[in-house]
Amino acid sequence: MITLQNAQNALKTVYLEALSNQLNTQVDPVFNMVKQSSTDVYGRNIIKLVPYGINGGIGAGDEDGALPTSQNSKYLNFTTSLKNLYGTIEITDKAIRASENDEGAFVNLLTAEMDGLLQSSKFNLSRMFYGDGTGILAKTITAIDSSGKNMTVNNATAFAEGMLLDFYMSDVLDADMTGVEVIKIDRANKKIYLSKVSASFTTTNISKYTVCVQGSKDRELTGLGAIFGTSATLYGVSRADYPFLMPYTLSKTSAETFDEMFIQKMIDRVEARSNYQPNVILCGGDVIYDVMTTLAGYAKNLDSTNLVGGFTSVLFCGIPVLRNRFETENNMMLLNTDQFTLHQLCDWEWLTHNGGSILKQKEGYASYSATLVKYADLICNRPNAQALITNL
User: Fold this and answer.
1) How many Cβ atoms sit within 10 Å of the Cβ of residue 108?
2) Could you give the CA distance from residue 391 to residue 331 in angstroms, rounded to a whole number?
3) Which residues lie closer than 8 Å to 7 by C-beta, 6 or more apart?
4) What are φ and ψ of residue 80, in 5° steps?
5) DSSP summary character for residue 339
6) Please, which contacts does 152-156 make with residues 24 or more away whose CB atoms are closer than 8 Å?
7) Residue range 191-196: mean pLDDT, rounded
8) pLDDT (tens digit per residue) in 148-167
9) What is the pTM of this model?
10) What pLDDT does residue 385 have?
11) Rounded to an integer, what distance in angstroms lies between the CA atom of residue 251 and that of residue 249?
């Protein structure tokens, strides 16, 4: 007979390992390249000692002359807080009772819930990896239709049906627009249909509004958007004082031709300024198709490789070329993923309640919820080994 305890045991012993493995290795082809570590975690923070520059105790001299003066390597403390990553499922009491004498139906019930949790978690982890930590899903809301309960945004790729949103006006949470569900998406016209809108959500206030995933504002992973951002500090350190915290950025001019020579030139520039060569080329918009067209002009068959998580990529001089599905602008990132680490307090675990229970009754409702949790954040040791090329 299926009971609530059976369900908890299945979540703990059967589903957790499979969920954890897939969220660690099958989220995104670039995210999968990032190593994970439990080192450098102190309480609620990550404090990482990062070397920069080179050891100064190097030199040449006479055979009987003085040896080079010793000089220690330079270090900085990178500091960031552990971000709280959650994923929640909900099972109704009715569904559990309906399958209590049918193990097959019960397995199908849990499997369907786990699949839904897995897909939504993959989507949001990948989105966070490319984001800037603010949780803002669109740079601009370009139009608002209050009567039709929809908005038009500059980029709809970060939205998904069923997502719950919080809306902020002038950086203050709009109390009437919390937990707003995305009903449907017109991706061709970048239009998001919502479950409700507030009286303040009008064309007059359009420039004042920002939208985030529920409860996530300024609480997401310090992703690529933060690395390439314009903030005065990164990981608690002033960018102006330490130029190696600045990635290489370039806007291609109309006089420059985007071809294989241009890409190689950018790779060489990154290596010259950081001593590290990019190991992945990440393309926004339609740039990846331009790269593939260029490569196809030199070979009948494009070279490709298999990446962690079952992903496949074409190669440019042995470097995987991938598409950033959350970026519609025509740009290109040159990344060295060896310089990134996802520091975590622990791997994915079920949040437990009194007595160690995983499933908890939702107060006032005949349903139970379970929450998957991970405490982590992303740190890049060498921001200057990363590059962003725009206007392609």
Assistant:
1) 12
2) 6
3) 91, 96, 106, 110, 359, 368
4) -150, 160
5) G
6) 152/189, 152/190, 152/191, 152/192, 153/190, 153/192, 153/211, 154/190, 155/190, 155/326, 155/327, 155/328, 156/185, 156/187, 156/190, 156/191, 156/192
7) 98
8) 999 999 999 999 999 999 99
9) 0.92
10) 97
11) 7
3-state secondary structure (DSSP) of residue 34: coil
Type of residue at 265:
K
Q: What is the pLDDT of residue 301?
A: 66
Cα distance between residue 127 and residue 366, in whole Å: 33
Segment 279-303 shows an average pLDDT of: 87
Q: Which two tokens stand for residue 371?
A: 């929450």
Q: What is the CA radius of gyration of the chain?
A: 24
The neighbouring-strand residues paired with 305 are 313
Q: What is the DSSP string of 328-344?
A: -SS-EEEE-GGGEEEEE
Residue type, 263: I
pLDDT in tens, 301-323: 678 888 887 888 999 999 999 99
Please state, in angstroms and rounded to a whole number, the distance separating the CA atoms of residues 63 and 103.
Answer: 82
58-96 pLDDT per residue, tens: 778 777 778 777 667 788 999 999 999 999 999 888 888
- Burial classification of residue 318, based on how many CB atoms lie within 10 Å of its CB (0-12 exposed, 13-18 middle, 19 or more buried): exposed
DSSP single-letter state for residue 301: S
Mean pLDDT of the chain: 91
User: Cβ–Cβ contacts within 10 Å for residue 70, how many?
Assistant: 8
What token pair was written down for 284? 């926004």
% of the chain with per-residue pLDDT over 90: 73
Q: Is the pLDDT of residue 299 over 70?
A: no
Would you give the DSSP letter of residue 392? -
Which residue matches tokens 């897939």? Answer: 22
Q: What pLDDT was estimated at residue 55? A: 67
Instruction: Report DSSP state, residue 88.
Output: E
Measured between alpha carbons, how far is 252 from 247 in angstroms, rounded to an integer?
A: 16
Residue range 34-60: mean pLDDT, rounded: 88
For 227, other C-beta atoms within 10 Å of its C-beta total: 22
CA-to-CA separations, 278 to 32, 223, 248, 335, in angstroms, rounded: 16, 17, 12, 5
HSE (CB half, 13 Å, CA atoms) of 204?
2
Q: Give the integer Cα–Cα distance in Å for 315 and 280.
A: 9
